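Possible regression after last week's pipeline update?

I re-ran a chain I had predicted before the update to compare outputs. Posting the input and the new output here so someone can diff against the archived version. Not blocking, just want to make sure nothing changed silently.
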Amino acid sequence: MERTRLKISEDWLSFWLGLIIFVLSLGAIINIDILGWGIKVNTWSDISHALSPVSTSFSWMPGWVSVLSTYVFLLIILGFGSWALGANIKKFLFSFTIVFFIGFFCYILGNHANIAATTSKEMEKFGASWSLKLTGEAGFIIALIVGLIIGNFFPKFANSLKEAIRPELFVKTAIVIMGAGVGIKALENTSLSMSILFLGLCSIVVAYLIYWAFVYYIARRFFKFSREWAAPLASGISICGVSAAIATGGAIRARPMIPIMVSSLVVIFAVVELLLLPFLAQQFLWHEPLVSGAWMGLAVKTDGAATASGAITDALVLAKLKAETGLQYEKDWILNTATNIKVFIDVFIGIWAFILAIIWTKFIEKKEGEKVKAIEIWQRFPKFVIGYIITFLIFLLIGLISPSLVKTKTGNQIASAQNVQTVQQNQQNVSVASLQNNSQQKIEQKKTEYKPGPAKNSTEQGNVFRIIFFVLTFFTIGVMSNFKKLLSEGIGKLALIYIIALFGFIIWIGLLISYLFFGGIMPPIVQ
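New output (post-update):
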């Protein structure tokens, strides 16, 4: 049986999983709700109203049946994928069941009205006298905290779940699915989407030429690390965490323990950033939502933590904006900004590893007759990025070929464009009053009613699975973050470099670049 087992990497698996869910979601475009039974979690005060299928065509289905259907579907496709990766399938079935239901329960809890309701009107609707106003994405934070408790206080139990602890697989699959939603938003607001893509390109310069050079210099000059240690450390801290550290270690042929140690360090600080930076963004950048999203993409390392921090920041900042100004902005623009930047950074991991391999073989560890093959760029290229681009382009083409499938928000487009122009003229002093007045004027100028087209329904069905994968990402990041074990590996000197780099310049340079490109630009307004 083992001889017939497929050979696939986690990167390719995320590509195929995301595409499978994406293709099935396309059924909604021809009014066939293949994934309409997927579970949707609503804000609730009565648990009986918390769960419902995402499609109205399945309104007859009880919520608990929708939960079980979603669980069984994911168990099958992830079970097959884990088998292909070489996992013990029996252990996977057990561990995934535990991971799914603990994580999902955390997400349900995060949608309780006392946690998720963001306005007095919502609180009144659910009979809540108070609320933390965190929106339903608070469930992600609860999942992370529960995961951290399990990982640090119940290590034996955490170890029993290891077959299903794959945060990078979960988040990369979610990113592939997310490409469709980004395509829809690109149709709704082309100018803003192009700005996000442009910043993504610029972020490559920041991550690879500024961050990397600084960290490498500090490691070599002040901490006397060898090149073998300094290069993977610079990539892990400045680029994309675990993936970059491993790719760099392989490119320069470092000892296997070095990228592993660096990856452990990245995991520790990714959790710290995930718990800290979104709340700082809520307090100090709530009036600059897209700046906060770009900041997450440039400052937080690893795909899982960066995307997760973008999701939390999206919820926290929009809730703060709504509470302070009374305006409700469209969800996911902050998340999409963070994710797009991270994807652009990921795209060049293979190219950067190839460049380092050439430098090492030609100038540092030169060996007679040794050459670096161009195919290594493809071998190191993150394949899930291809899936993200495919789902993005397909929905973009659907909207361009048949606009009736995507009812774009004409009123919102005008409101957003004019709001951006007005606010940009006063970038240095964006007040609550000006936001309210400008936005109200735009809403009064054109109130266009619209009905979401079939393509929108398709992205909503894919989105329920994207959310589940996010929940699994948060929970498993927490479970794998055993701080005591990581600290016992003797990474104190490496951690000091990380602290100096992160708080010395990475956070602040990332914030400056984010302000330069997104200062004063607001997401579209929900009418």
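Follow-up from reviewer: compared with the archived run. Residues 408-450 have pLDDT under 50 and may be disordered. Marking as no regression found.
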